[in-house]
Amino acid sequence: MTALAAEGRMVARTARRMRRTGALGLSGWTAVGALVLIVLIAAVGPLLNSVDPNAVSLSEAYQNPSAAHLLGTDANGRDLFARLVDGSRTALTGPFLVVLVSTILGTSLALAAVWFGGWFDQVSVRVMDAVFAFPGLLLAILATALFGSGLTAAVAALSIAYIPYIGRIVRSAALRERNLPYVAALRVQGVHGVLISLKHILPNISGLIVANATLAFGFALMDLAGLSFIGLGVQAPTPDWGAMVGTGMSGILQGFPDEALFASALIVITVAAVNVLGDRLTERSEALS
Amino acid sequence: MNTTPLLAVEHLGKRFGKGRHQTTAVADVSFQLAEGGSLGIVGESGSGKTTTARMIIGLEAPSEGRILFKGQDRTQPARGVKELRERGRNIQIVFQDPYTSLDRRQRIGDCLAEVLGVHFRLDREETKRRVRELGELVGLDERQLNSLPKALSGGQRQRVAIARALAAEPEILILDEAVSALDVSIQAQILNLLSDIREERGVSYLFISHDLAVIRQVCDDTIVMRHGAVVEHGSTAAVLDAPQHPYTRLLRDSVPRDGWDPALSTTRS
Amino acid sequence: MTAMSLLSVDSLTVKLPVAGEMRTVLKDVSFELEPGKALGLVGESGSGKSMTVRTIARLLPPGADVTGHVRFDGTEVFDLRGEALRKYRAGDVSMIFQDARAHTNPVRRIGDFLTEALCTNQRMPKKQAEARAVELLAEVGIHNPEQRLRQYPHELSGGLLQRVMIAAAVAVKPRLILADEPTTALDVTTQAEVMVILKRMQSEYGMAMLFITHDLELASSVCDDTIVFYAGQVVERQQASRLHRDPLHPYTAALVRARPEIERRAGRLPALPGHPTTAYEAPDGCAFAPRCAFAQDACRVSVPPLLRIGEQGDSRCVRMPELHGSLLAAAGTTQEVTP
């Protein structure tokens, strides 16, 4: 391969990158649409439920969809539609809290590490690496073992487990930014380091942070659903998608897969939408920088 | 007449790395910059000229030697924001790359206002007036002050960088290859601007460049650096018209010009 | 004249898709290059000099709109497909880029880089290709070539790496070398060394060369002829050695005057007002008129044709017949500059 042939390939690659204008595109907007719908359901759906999602009626177990029960009922005769709508709240709130806490902590830690450098940076990198080595789910299981089952302990544990995920990405982006001459120019003017970090470095890497927080939301949703699935997360009778997949398992064996099927479909759709959006946002932040 | 030079650098040295990987970037560099003077540092990549500048501005700590500003010791980088600001009002710097030396999300006017806010207590109106003044000084109009860096050309961005450095009203301006990335027609505009500013404000220049013709245009005195050390030092006219050191001669002869034949200037190939 | 030219560019106009619209980057560019000659393409950033060479090398991004002709040895370059295009790019023309490091694979040895083209394109056996690589490195003035073959790009300085690129470019014995600012990233002493080698290789191998540079002095000292680009157009064409002594366009003259000299300090540099424009942003009429000290109303009406100026060359300035010879002496260009 001559330099010229290699250049030809590079031109095509650059052209592809150039065409990325920073627009989200069809897939991105579809994902946004799906997520808006899901969030809307979580926000107002439970208020509109005409049936109590926790009303047990053993005589109505495993009913097929009907006018009274739009998606049928589960093993305890509870309305599946009402439970899915109600469950969206717990399914979305958990990952949202995880992402919020881990992004704020991870970003602050990374910015501080980059600004102060030296031993502080070294130590925080080592600590993040150590935490990163633990699977989030394992940490969450450990936390529930220590502090008892329920959402609170799991969310707290995952929030810590996700810090390195955000922190490592923010650190490398902030490091790149800090080495640009404009930061040196602000330093020699005597602008405070905290101000440079928050007013200059942070806005310039915010696109990347949002993109990665979005992706982290998908992972957190999966982790929390998994936790509820094995019975350590959301406790019965509170409805939750992950827990519904778990309780629906017995139904599958008896030939009633609806509960597990609907709940996992919602998880898959949400995670897929979040991942697509996260990917588009990542591309966008690359295109704009 | 004040006999203390504005800036004195004495036996300055900088080593990077440790043990076997240690390299010497700057070794035993000494020079003085007089008030209102203009000193050129010329050299090729790896000559240590940029490291010298970074030590003087306080972005790098010297391994040995001293830096004196008006007789005060400035060898170690400033500790704390207050000291940084004080020093910022003495010495400022303009970098080479006009694209990365501005925050791409900050409007030009805000950039200048921010720096003014660091050094002076000004109300909103006064800040606005000063920003306009600075813009005028470097030839930027109201519309350009309201725009983001991406709307400006390389030459205009470099004007912003100069205005930002001058906002602190420094006594010394370090220009680190500040015109090297610019097109010839823009380079001439910036060089004229720099000579106007020097006349108007009496600011002294430490002008770092690899370009002998640009050095001739801007600097009264010149030092030539190679491999971290000074090989020649004198008035710019003397250094360029009658170079004493073989390296200075090689540098001069390597510059393409009328009737230049690369074969005659190379001694090493 | 056309009969003996190796490369002929005829009314070349190129538009590229940028942010959803087609932007003109080259406008009606024509020139000829004879075998073994060096032609300098001079201009500032965005002038179209680089784009011209990329068009010739068929390196335009997909979606580019090209009209006009580029003929290499009589063959239309835009008609080349498949094997013929591969042969053209791998054997007839070679390119040397400004950033040698970006154009080498950091994890492959210098030797692999050099022998690859010989083995794949010329079907040379490995042993023979290595011997040839050693020969090539020696030709570009690299000491201990055997040892260099085993090194990686990061172990070589910028100047040495650019010599390797020259060796690789001439390895296939092309008839045309496209050199895109090959020494701009190098120190001035290294530039001189690399230029010596490039010129020597060019004449030893009898190759023609298109030499892109922003440096007028460099172009006039290493090329036979030069063309000056402004806003995607050719504004002047003449013998290289006369370029900065007797320019044929106000733009060239202004560039010569704006550049500081080593020999003396100018009180004030006669700077050009404004900044270089691209073909896309160029106004009606002469693209240079807004910055030109000699512009008259007639200049702003229509695009001037490329005029023949005696035996000396061509100029895209309608006032050239009256201004010829007086451009450099002219005062009046020191207007106050506003960006």
From TrEMBL, chain A:
It is found in: Cell membrane. Pfam families: BPD_transp_1. It is a multi-pass membrane protein. Residues 88-278 form the ABC transmembrane type-1 domain. The chain crosses the membrane at residues 21-44, 96-120, 132-162, 209-234, 260-278. InterPro entries: BP-dependent_transpt_permease (IPR050366), MetI-like (IPR000515), MetI-like_sf (IPR035906). Keywords: Cell membrane, Membrane, Transmembrane, Transmembrane helix, Transport. Its main location: membrane. Belongs to the binding-protein-dependent transport system permease family. PANTHER family: OLIGOPEPTIDE TRANSPORT SYSTEM PERMEASE PROTEIN APPC, PEPTIDE ABC TRANSPORTER PERMEASE PROTEIN. This is ABC transporter permease. It comes from Arthrobacter horti.
UniProtKB/TrEMBL annotation, chain B:
This is ATP-binding cassette domain-containing protein. GO terms for molecular function: ATP binding. It holds the Pfam family oligo_HPY. InterPro entries: AAA+_ATPase, ABC_transp_ATP-bind, ABC_transporter-like_ATP-bd, ABC_transporter-like_CS, Oligopep_ABC_C, P-loop_NTPase. Residues 7-252 form the ABC transporter domain. The keyword ATP-binding applies. It comes from Arthrobacter horti. Keywords: ATP-binding, Nucleotide-binding, Transport. The keyword Nucleotide-binding applies. Belongs to the ABC transporter superfamily. It comes from the Bacteria. SMART domains: AAA.
UniProtKB/TrEMBL annotation, chain C:
The keyword Membrane applies. Pfam families: ABC_tran, oligo_HPY. SUPFAM superfamilies: P-loop containing nucleoside triphosphate hydrolases. Keywords: ATP-binding, Cell inner membrane, Cell membrane, Membrane, Nucleotide-binding, Translocase, Transport. The keyword ATP-binding applies. It is found in: Cell membrane. Transmembrane segments: none annotated. Residues 7-256 form the ABC transporter domain. One of its GO terms (molecular function) is ATP binding. It comes from the Bacteria. Its main location: membrane. It is a peripheral membrane protein. Belongs to the ABC transporter superfamily. This is ABC transporter ATP-binding protein. It comes from Arthrobacter horti.
